[in-house]
Amino acid sequence: MSHDVTPPTDSPFRSEPTARDQAPQFVLPLVVRIEKTAPPARTDALETAARAVLVMLGDERSVGDGEWAEVMRDWQDARIRKVVRRARGAEWRRAEGLPGITVTGKSAEVRVFPPVPLDGWPKDLARLQVSGTDLDDPEPPVPADLTAPVLWLNPDLDMSAGKAMAQAGHGAQLAWWELSDEERAAWRDAGFPLAVRAADPARWGELTTSGLPLVRDAGFTEIAPGSCTVVADHPALR
Q1: With a threshold of 0.70, does the pTM exceed it?
Q2: What is the torsional sign of CA 208, 54, 15, 83?
Q3: Closest CA to 188 of 55, 71, 68
Q4: How far is it, in rounded angstroms, from Cα 96 to Cα 11?
Q5: Which helix (H) or strand (E) holds 98?
């Protein structure tokens, strides 16, 4: 699934044209492992994708003079696009052979790669399917630990798992941008604990006006432009 995000004044996620559209456009590839016989649980896949984005942002190769730093800067100067594709078997093994980071949840495995140009995907990733990422939770997720970060999903939107994974990644990234260096380091050192949950419909309006980081989708796929998809509720930002 393909999506796009931005900070409040020049959001990487706004639907109207901004200066970000003039910059070369890159996309952050994420690949979720979905084996026929053992697909991951939906919520775990969403949380693992969000952590994968944070792991990439916090990796030493992504900052300073790191090997991925330049392309990470180029990506963040443009629209913040993420595309989630699925792989299994030999496809997954080929994806693991490319430079990137695999993040493992309870049942999910997500590999995140350095950003690539919109039309410059490595062939082993370009051939992977975007559709077919529909996943289910075998059991309802337990209530979120409110002492840790929670990415609240819009309860009124029906998103595929791939779309929701990208949106959760957007929310995590907006929270990361808002934190101080010390707060980022603390989150990273703790292993990026977080939960992804659908918000209580009665609280959604309050969350969207709370001042917490809010993702407004550009509307390229599945939902209307400008839709509020995720509120990033990090304790340090309350």
Answers
A1: yes
A2: negative
A3: 55
A4: 32
A5: none
